[in-house]
NADP-reducing hydrogenase subunit HndC (Methanorbis rubei), 597 residues
Amino acid sequence: MTRTILVCCGTGCRANGSMDVSLALTAAVAAAAADANVCCVTETGCSGLCELGPLVRIMPDDIMYYRVRPFDAHEIIQKTVLAGEPIERLLFKDSSGNHVLHQADNPFYGHQKKIALRNVGIIDSRSIDEYIAHGGYSALARALEMTSDEIIREVEESGIRGRGGAGFPTGRKWRSAAVLESSPKYVICNGDEGDPGAFMDGSIMDGDPHSVLEGMMIGALAIGAEEGFLYIRDEYIQAVKSMKKAIRAAEKRGLLGESILGTNRKLYFSVVRGGGAFVCGESTALMSSIEGNVGEPRAKYIHSVEKGLWGCPTVINNVETWTNIPFIINAGGKKFAEIGTEGSTGTKVFALVGKVKYTGLVEVPMGITLRKLIFEIGGGIPNNRKFKAVQTGGPSGGCIPASLLDIPVDFDTLKEYGTMMGSGGMIVMDDHSCMVEFARYYVNFLCGESCGKCTPCREGLRHMQSILTNICSGYGREGDIELLEMIGSTMIDCSLCALGSSAPNPVLTTIRYFRDEYEAHIREHRCPAGVCKALTAFSVNHATCKGCMACNAVCPTRAIVRLNGGFPIITKSCDGCGSCRDVCRFNAIEAVKGGRV
Ligand code: SF4
Ligand code: SF4
Ligand code: FES
């Protein structure tokens, strides 16, 4: 039987050496070719479980190997491919210590449902033939035989809402643009993913670029556009390459250009590289940037579906939204609407990161609970630590505490609790995370990213930054919390764009759910999580310390010394970084009140 070996060459696995694994497997296949007609090696996009990469999957047997190294290649070919024997040490081990052979039996994958990621990690993204062999461009062919109204009705029936953040109904947006008589019209793909920790859109563009193009082509047919742009953040070198290559391949096949598949419809797409400004993820700033102007937002009293790019009707959707469209056209809007919840249909892709055992790229039905996502798919919190909070929606979102782990993940519920879906970044925090410092981190980030055009955002963020820095440094004052709340509500009401109006969310949700931590910083000069250096000292609990000296090995300032050849002590050279506490398996290092204040 001819087998295919899928080697994950997404960004995470690439960083862990998957290109070398791919080369070694190719060489091992060539060496074994004399014995049998074995297989081919295919480099794919992100397979999901980045934490345990590089990942290798052997098809059609569906044997999945984790943390594969180049020196494993020969054994994989000889044992698994030729002799059909699994290699235990490369298999996933579940929580009971059992080896898991197939991807579908791994709990990380078992609870997922893949629509947007249907080809990511399965096909060679560089090959249009592979995309077509997996059903690609069949939705475009179908759409070419449909009227604009029929296409839009499917999208409306699907109930899909924009995956970029705001959750606006996609079908409604398309219809508003389709009914306008004016020309030209444009479609745009927003690939300016800039949230810290997010890599959903980059992974889709890198791992399945044709599905994005196909979705955009269908959108263009529906609204009557003949030109489209993919705005991709400059740092996504792989995604830019991948999308450009896909556009060229589609042009060669007559899927783009003067005559789409021999019809009288024409369509041209091009890639625009973003300059690295987070604000350009905001639709009006993004369009301004494409036009060659400074990427600053404008007031949205006229919607961009009416006057968008160069003042023309424009439909802008993000990468994940576009990639769902071919599925909707092929399977029918109704089928898509059967997945998820009534108000949030379909699935959602998340980049699950932070203090969670299995970090990676996941796609789950809308309505799944945070508990299931973090504990069943993500495997829970590493090192037996306690879950503290999860940030959804990146810098524009908010945090959700442990008491709300059972709420469903959908657009409206997250909003109700002060956060938002955002584009899908999900950062998990354990009890070693300080919520005040966490809010300060995001405010710092946004301070650097605010374009400065409107006062509430520009000044509000700076003022918040200074208050939060003072609190974390031990100089917080009574009334600071109330002041933060007041600034936050002014920013929400008065900022020009979504960056400013959502920027206070991390601050307001941490105050809402962790007010006691703010109070401990201000009133007691204490950081309960032991993170704020100015307020924290570390001490060794000699009753639980086992003298293993793991702490000594990680201390960057050599502040840990042995006591009479036995247990360690922390000296005055301690910098307060907390690395020793993180590494101690016996919880023998405790954060106590202290530090420089
Ligand atoms: S790592 Fe923990 S148990 Fe080991 S010596 Fe340091 S404090 Fe003691
Ligand atoms: S907190 Fe950092 S600097 Fe201080 S003892 Fe621990 S590892 Fe060393
Ligand atoms: S990059 Fe390989 S699993 Fe994500």
The first helix runs from residue 11 to 15. The chain has a mean pLDDT of 94.
